[in-house]
């Protein structure tokens, strides 16, 4: 979830937006064209609730099993379809991160 939140936060700042919720940030960012394309913002807007729901479901399962709540989602407990969607989500996030890194020449800062 954090990579999506971070991308949305930076994109909103670059766009001059004062929105705070992640999905609202992703909604307003494409209009500025300053950071994320409409397609990337849409992809992140779809990925965010998917990741959020995976984590929430795991936390609810932990409560029901009287286990400590954390932010991890054991892959072994996911269906094949959920694992496939998760892998695709991570690939999309990485592609967007790589695009931002190249566009803003962030590798030069290292």
What is the fold's blueprint, element by element?
Blueprint: H1 2-15, H2 22-32, H3 38-64, H4 80-103
Helix pairs in contact: 1-2, 2-3, 3-4
Q: N- to C-terminal separation?
A: 24 Å
Number of strands: 0
Mean pLDDT: 92
Oligomeric state of the chains in view: single chain
In terms of structural class, how would the helical and strand content be classed? mainly alpha
Q: Which ranges are low-confidence, i.e. pLDDT below 50, for 5 or more consecutive residues?
A: none
Give me the strand/helix succession. Answer: HHHH
Major sheet: size, sense and barrel closure? Answer: none
Shape annotation: elongated
Question: C-alpha Rg, in Å?
Answer: 16 Å
Per DSSP, what share of the residues sits in E-state strands of 2 or more residues? under 5%
Discrete helix count: 4
Helix fraction by DSSP (H/I, runs of at least 4): 55-70%
